[in-house]
Amino acid sequence: xxxxPFQVSVALTTLLxxxxxxxxxxxxxxxxxxxxxxxxxxxxxxxxxxDQLWQEASELRGIGKYEEAIxxxxxxxxxxxxxxxxxxxxxxxxxxxxxxxxxxxxxEQAIKIKPDYLIALFEQGNSFYELKDYDAGIRVWKxxxxxxxxxxxxxxxxxxxxxxxxxxxxxxxxxxxxxxxxLYNQLVSIExxxxxxxIDRGTAFYQLNRYQEAILNYDRAIELEPNNALAWKxxxxxxxxxxxYEEAIxxxxxxxxxxxxxxxxxxxxxxxKMVRESQSKIPALGRDLDTFLSELQxxxxxxxxxxxxxxxxxxxxxxxxxxxxxxxxILSDLRKIEQYTGTKPGILYSSFVPKNKEGERxxxxxxxxxxxxxxxxxxxxxxxxELILVTADGKTIRKRIEGATRSQIREMTQKFFTxxxxxxxxxxxxxxxxxxxxxxxxxxxxISQGQELTNLTFLMDKNLRSVPLAALHDGKGFxxxxxxxxxxxSLALTNTKPTNLRNQQVLAMGAQEFPNQRPLxxxxxxxxxxxxxxxxxxxxxxxxxxxxxxxxxxxxxxxxIVHLATHAEFRPGKPSNSYxxxxxxxxxxxxxxxxxxxxAPPVDLLVLSACRTALGNDEAELGFAGLAVQAxxxxxxxxxxxxxxxxxxxxxTAFYKKLKEVPxxxxxxxxxxxxxxxxxxxxxxxxxxxxxxxxxxxxELAKVGDRTFSHPYYWSAFTMIGNPW
Length: 725
Known about the structure:
alpha/beta; Serine Threonine Protein Phosphatase 5, Tetratricopeptide repeat; Rossmann fold; 3 domains; eight-stranded mixed β-sheet; five-stranded mixed β-sheet; about 50% helix
């Protein structure tokens, strides 16, 4: 029997609807005051000054400089303390800054001066609403309704906008459904051609368990707006309540087509499909509101992370309009991966959230995920780490990690990086490795072990993307000893279909000498071992390592693996600062990577064996994480720092050897790393030993003497990016 973690509740109060935006149409003009006894020259000068101040305030507000505008409005109020317009715009400016208490006080002053100031009352009610003082908001709005309208806009406020705000507050916030329905009954008699009013009226019926009447209202909304996804979605819920499952599915599918980023609908469809596949009884809608809200928020957080991570990569690389995968597709992909490869995968979102976010309910009238994400929250050092794990059977676990803040993780990552790259102090990495493990992995160990997961793929926030995950340590062993690992920029930007590389050929290219960089003496042996000894393919060295040679070789043979043994750097700043170095010092910039034409025909794996990333720099981390996306390949493998020539040769040789044995790329990397940890890969007697393989080394490498590669400096920098399967 399948589990149903994404159950659907009666609580449509939390579903997304369109909020009413406050409209400020009051012109910025001065007011008329008594001038008796004041010399005309002084009056003229004062009027000129006030006009100039109003102009400045208007311009500052127009460009979003509300604090500066408030300072100008304060100057106006010193000259004209009874200017109700100045008090109004002062309140409006505070409202735009999110300082609602100050906004309310300013609106109150405007209303005292002008008691019939309808727009000020409306906006004051909106400010009370933002503070979740719903009763005060309704009281002020009702006061506004008693005022005689003096313009077409004020008439619209009284007849439609304010009653709709009051009704919506009763419905979605106070959950007083009978009161809400009474107001919506009046509204549909006044405004019968507005779909959103019929949707809300239908929702009031729904909450009163009057599902057939709810459907009639949703149908009326659909008649008015056939492409209204919300109407189709809510109709689906009402049909589901009446156990008209096939009609409900059709309604949900229509909603999903109209709004592809609606994860609630996608999740419910996924549940229904899982049930039908298992031939089980379709579950009833859950009644536990708190459980539902928790699951719904997890659902929406997954969507926000996908959108946020995708947007960061898109903006950095200059790509647009990547469709976000619904959770149903994510779960379907995970199940296919499990069936095809035998791997049990888990997707782990690791991101920072504001400290006060936990426990907040999703606003029932919040904007779509894409719209809400555009309102970027400022990053703070005390933002807390939050983890969400998704598994193939649809189970999720979401945990806020107390004590793990952005600043603490940034500091710990730096300590970890310093320790893991310091072979001379062999245990200096251990303390930060264990602390990061405690924050990033341990909170989810119970479910990952219970699910018998064998692969963890991390989707990570800034300050986390350059953590060498393989070297995280639980006090007994490394993370790489238990899980194959990978990082993704986002699921939306990743081709998650699994592929078997065993029948693919490799194109291996590289250089050992560079005009302005240190030489890479192991490259000839690396290319020869990979393309001639371990894997079928072709190699090109030094002067043959050009963009033109690569294109021509790929035109002749559709190599599925491209291996580049050369310097590559992911640097701060724009993508053009990062590069892969070809022969003769020619640099292929990250923004030129598409010139490799690795997507025509598609390459399954791109390997950069000697690259490094600027630790802690967001742009450099985005370049590294977006490598597969920018190159147009399914997967890429690169290193976070330059590893010694002999260490790189050892890891690459072991990786390609294991890639012949297992169908999963990240598992091949893991097995190579484990072989290095255990000493099965080493230099001995002037030869590189890789289990049963012995490869003679040139004098410049043989002279390092016998050596093992068990320290994480040698193996943990190498990371699978994109599709790890």
